[in-house]
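Progress report, Aim 2. The chain analyzed during this reporting quarter is listed below.
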Amino acid sequence: MKQIPNQINVLYETQLNQKAIPKKLCPYYKKWLRYYLDFCHKYNHESSVKKSLAHYINKLKEKSQTDQQQKQAINAISLFYEIGTDHAGKKNPLKNKTNLILKKKEGLKESNASWVSVYDDLKNEIKLRHYSPNTLKTYRGWVRQFQNFSKSKDPRLLENSDVKKFLTYLAVDKKVAASTQNQSFNALLFFFKHILKRDFGEFKDVPRAKRKPYIPEVLSREEIDVIIANLSPPFSLVAKMLYGCGLRLSECMKLRISCFNFDTGTLTVHDGKGKKDRMVPLPESIATEIKNHLAGVIDLHEKDLKAGYAGTFLPSLLEKNIRTLPQYLDKS
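Predicted structure tokens for the chain:
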């Protein structure tokens, strides 16, 4: 289906705001406009000519659209026609589109525009979906690179062609790995869909970095033993848990005493990849070493308490509640 050109989309959104169309109706108005442009493209009608609207409404009737839907579609397309008469003094907004866009670009910069609100929205959208902080860091990095590549063009003026040029630049000029380009693609997909609230489009003609076929190198049991033997505590214990429990490094670093269950010989991993919990077997061969390490940690913690130094990383909301707890205790 034909999409609304970005320049027309900017003008149409401005028109909706000026006409005080309720925000909850704006998506429906844009949907009717998108259907109208697609209809004109398929059946060779001039989208800027008002006579095309009658043919469009007849098509809606054939599709069994209700009278209310037809009325809403008429209002939506009428606002589209008014773009030219209200702002350019012409009845044909597409034939004189260049001059119209230049007159309507007040406050929209081709370069050096502020992206502060973009990063604020990105942070909010990531937190709203409870994505990993690493995802926020990665997506923010790619959006910043895209901003630099587009010379800080006003986000409302960004088009799919800007993304195509950026992805082509990564694949052809920077020669990035396939995984890197795919990561940038996903970051910009999220940026367009959830921040700009715009369709991303198709990118079939964009050169994609090829994933190199390779055979993974797997160390033998003897080689693993040699590596662990050359590590000193506590790094040797970390390596043993990574290998014996199948943990990621970040998961191993976030383990707490409550995660270990020596009675059942299991280890509970909280908030793993995808914010999922899972339970894995705890190797008996390192159970004694883990207990000794935990005893040392407890002893170190007691020394810290006596020295007046103590603390740990907590989830943001829990940390906030604990900080405000003394205030409530004082009031009581």
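The chain has three domains: 6-104, 116-195, 221-306. The beta strands are 260-261, 266-269, 278-281. These observations will guide the mutagenesis work planned for the next reporting period.
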